[in-house]
Design a protein that fits this description.
Elements (H helix, E strand, L loop, with lengths): L6 H15 L2 E3 L2 H17 L5 E6 L1 H6 L14 H11 L14 H12 L3 E5 L7 E8 L2 E8 L5 E6 L2 E4 L4 H5 L3 H7 L3 H10 L3 H18 L8 H10 L7 H17 L5 E3 L5 H17 L4 H22 L11 H15 L3 H15 L11 H20 L15 H15 L3 H12 L7
Length: about 450
């Protein structure tokens, strides 16, 4: 077994992953994180908010460009989310903060935007999640800085006096030390630690996520987007009513609901609701249809969350590549392999390589209704990759960027994202800025 430098991390690795990366969120997590940051700043201000300034990293900018905000009557973007959060001023609600929106709060938030007192800009040099919310009112100012994680506050400040945090990324990411530990682990060792450490509380929490994501998956088809189109294709005889169709249609429905601003929570994975839909629902639905016992399915979903976290420890919180189509698909594929053969390193490596060989290079161009298209692609790839791996087939490590092991393949995927595609985020941000209304942009 691996030598651990911190026994606390060894004892609580799964719990740390669940605590930091697997949680309920209502709406797309980046705009809602903007709402959280604005709420935390407004909570320090303690006065009616008169002006808001929002500064975000490219990934957060992308994910707030076209996604509908819950309880906003169809409004989109980080600006309205931040304005709502500042007026609610309840950071204790974390990423379910927008359940507290009232008609009056929505009216007041829109009034702030209409007066042009909510400004917004993107810090293109930021490589990790970065959200800075500044609020003014009654002659005072307050500021909240969120870095590294969607609710990881690095700084709270009022009138230039620091109330909490040191204002550095290190301050915000000290509680994410488990990711550094994971980077030094073999994937099989990680999965052994996670499954060995799974207790009744963890199982109950994982089951809560299953129930939550199944519930929202029932709602999205009514929006007549991607899930509805798949359903129509099946009825027209263009698609078979088989396992692949049923899983893809359910996952697409969940993402259609989230991206459509439905005021229902989803259990995230790696801090992403869309990734949570795939990492939870694909293993669950496949396991149920194939007769896998529920305790094993729950274990496989713990595996799915752990693999997603492992990949993010290399690629970062918000990646240039589409986390739903690639990281979550890898995670679900490994989970499905685990359901059938446990921690089989060869078959797990095949599953990882099959997904990367298929989907490597799909970019993230922001959260939007079209994300359910990528989710369908990812769900298809994860199932096909897992079933091929279980049959003993894996794409050759001579192919493209694949490594000799699952760990090498994931590391190479990280290099593609962090080194080979450095200009992608900037290019996407500029395209989105050219498309966006100019009001409130700095």
């Amino acid at each position: 077994m691996i030598a651990w430098s911190n026994p606390e991390i060894r004892m609580n690795l799964l719990k740390q992953i669940l605590n930091h990366e697997v949680f309920p969120a209502m709406g797309c997590t980046e705009p809602i994180s903007c709402a959280f940051a604005a709420a935390a700043a407004a909570g320090q201000l303690g006065l009616p908010v008169e002006r808001i300034e929002l500064i975000v990293d490219p990934g957060t900018f992308k994910n707030g460009a076209a996604v509908t905000i819950p309880n906003s009557r169809g409004r989109k973007g980080n600006l309205i989310a931040a304005a709502l959060g500042a007026l609610i001023a309840r950071p204790d609600l974390k990423l379910e903060i927008l359940k507290a929106v009232t008609p009056l709060i929505l009216e007041q938030a829109q009034a702030l935007l209409d007066r042009g007192v909510v400004s917004y800009r993107c810090r293109e040099e930021e490589k990790e999640l970065y959200i800075e919310a500044r609020v003014e009112g009654g002659g005072s100012t307050a500021r909240c800085l969120v870095v590294g994680g969607h609710t990881s506050i690095a700084l709270l400040e009022k009138d230039g006096v620091i109330q909490a945090g040191a204002g550095t990324s290190t301050a915000a990411t000290d509680d994410h030390g488990y990711r550094e530990t994971m980077r030094g682990m073999k994937l099989a060792d990680l999965l052994q630690e996670v499954t060995d450490g799974l207790d009744d509380d963890d199982r109950a929490y994982i089951q809560r996520g299953i129930d939550m994501n199944l519930a929202i998956a029932e709602k999205g088809v009514d929006l007549k987007r991607n899930a509805f189109q798949l359903q129509q294709m099946m009825k027209q005889g263009l698609k078979a009513d088989d396992l692949f169709y049923r899983v893809k249609q359910k996952v697409a429905s969940a993402v259609d609901a989230r991206m459509g601003g439905l005021a229902e929570p989803v259990m995230t994975s790696g801090g992403s609701g869309n990734q949570g839909a795939l990492t939870v629902l694909v293993p669950y639905l496949v396991g149920r249809e194939r007769g896998v016992e529920l305790p094993c399915i729950q274990e496989s979903i713990a595996v799915s969350h752990a693999v997603n976290s492992y990949i993010k420890s290399f690629t970062g919180e918000l990646s240039v590549i589409c986390g739903c189509a690639i990281a979550a698909s890898i995670s679900a594929a490994v989970a499905m392999v685990y359901q059938q053969v446990g921690i089989d390193e060869e078959k797990i490596s095949h599953a990882v390589g099959n997904v990367i060989g298929d989907l490597c290079g799909i970019i993230c161009d922001g959260a939007k209704s079209g994300c359910s298209m990528k989710i369908v692609t990812g769900a298809e790839a994860s199932m096909r990759s897992a079933f091929m791996a279980l049959a003993g087939y894996g794409v050759s490590n001579d192919d493209g960027v694949l490594g000799r092991t699952a760990e090498e393949s994931i590391l190479n995927l990280s290099k593609i994202s962090l080194e080979g595609m450095q200009l992608v985020d900037s290019t996407v941000v500029h395209i989105l800025q050219d498309k966006a209304p100019r009001s409130g942009m700095a």
